[in-house]
Design a protein that fits this description.
It is built from 16 helices and seven strands. It has 363 residues and is of the alpha/beta class. It has a single domain, classed as Rossmann fold, CATH 3.40.50. A seven-stranded mixed β-sheet has the order 3-2-1-4-5-7-6, sandwiched between helices. The longest helix is centred in the last third of the chain and has 22 residues. It is globular.
Length: 363
């Protein structure tokens, strides 16, 4: 028989990579999760809402826009209630686990804010029944209305904020609650339109953080305070220096400045120096309320765990924003916990006008 010639056989294909068969599936999942986590961390570690001065060098631009957006979304009001500030926690509250998953069912998150207002008023030493009260940075008016109710109808409470949306919402809530002795205006706290010596009590709760000129902020509040009147300030502060901030502390502060539109923080001691530096104060006092307020940060996260649906149904933009808020809340907790941040409470009484000055003013 005849044989036919044939071409040489093709070389066998290279073996398939062994990687998928040799690496366990859980390890692949873990590696993917780690990569996603690192990517997310890189995004979340980069602050997204830096403070930008308004055209007049004030804080109207960024801060007013942020609070307008928060008010319009309604998410902040749903979880934080009418008060956009930290709450007050006693030793008994802490023993019950306030600020933990189960503890947030023991201490009501919103009620803690009312407690804070009551404790702040008590601590201020303000004489009873101040006729004219100014709430600097009033938000949607929760504190203004609470003070108006607590002090009685003879006390007139004026709230000011940079956010038109907040003024609208505050006015709506006052009408709904039948609070006739509280009113609200859009006004820059650094350039207040009130005459000198107008208010018996000037109240500022967590508004100083947004002020680009702390000296002017303090001076304006004391300017509109009547002689013999009381000023009380609650605000987030950074620790006093020296010792100088480490590089890690500087990085942490930079994030806290630039994520929630803060120009900068100052120390409790600096606020005291600013108040005394006006030359108008008869007395000035201060305290650090970190112990009383720090539980608020994690408590605010847990209330969202118990009631996630407003965020779930709000859509991807709010999901992303909420994740950023959770990260920032935790970073705030850690900054206060390690003494990088302090919770400043400052109070004082304005000196009575000298007889000659009082007579000249009447003329």
């Amino acid at each position: 028989s005849s044989s036919s010639s044939s071409s040489p056989a093709a070389p066998p294909p290279p073996p398939a990579p062994a990687f998928p068969h040799n690496v366990p599936t859980p390890a692949l999942v873990a590696a993917g999760a780690l990569a996603l986590a690192l990517g997310a961390k890189a995004i979340l570690d980069k602050p997204s809402r830096a403070y930008v001065q308004g055209p007049g060098g004030d804080s109207i631009g960024t801060v007013g826009e942020e609070y307008d957006a928060w008010t319009e979304e309604g998410i902040l009001e749903h979880y934080w209630g009418e008060h956009i500030h930290l709450g007050y926690y006693t030793d008994e509250d802490m023993a019950k686990g306030a600020g933990t998953l189960l503890g947030c069912r023991v201490k009501d998150f919103v009620e803690a804010k009312f407690d804070f207002v009551d404790k702040m008023l008590e601590w201020s030493g303000c004489p009873p029944n101040p006729a004219m009260v100014l709430d600097v940075g009033c938000g949607i008016g929760g504190t203004s209305r609470h003070l108006a109710k607590a002090l009685g109808p003879k006390s007139k409470v004026q709230g000011i904020t940079l956010s038109p949306n907040q003024v609208q919402r505050a006015t709506e809530l006052a009408a709904t609650q039948g609070v006739d002795n509280a009113s609200f205006r859009v006004m820059n706290a650094l350039e207040m339109e009130f005459p000198d010596d107008t208010f018996d009590l000037v109240w500022a709760c967590e508004s100083g953080e947004h002020m680009p000129d702390k000296k002017k902020y303090v001076e304006e509040m004391i300017r509109v305070l009547k002689p013999g009147g009381t000023i009380v300030i609650a605000t987030w502060c950074q620790r006093e220096t020296p010792p100088a901030f480490t590089d890690e502390e500087k990085a942490n502060l930079k994030f806290l400045y630039e994520e929630w539109a803060h120009p900068y923080f100052v120390s409790i001691e600096e606020y005291v120096r600013l108040m005394e530096g006006t030359g108008s104060m008869a007395t000035v006092g201060s305290a650090n309320w970190v112990k009383e307020t720090i539980r608020s940060w994690r408590h605010s996260i847990w209330v969202g765990v118990w009631d996630p649906w407003p965020v779930v149904f709000a859509g991807p933009r709010i999901w992303y924003k909420t994740i950023r808020e959770i990260v920032t809340l935790e970073r705030m907790h850690r900054a206060f916990d390690c003494d990088l941040m302090t919770y400043g409470m400052m109070k004082g009484t304005k000196a009575a006008a000298a007889p000659a000055a009082a007579a000249a003013a009447k003329e």
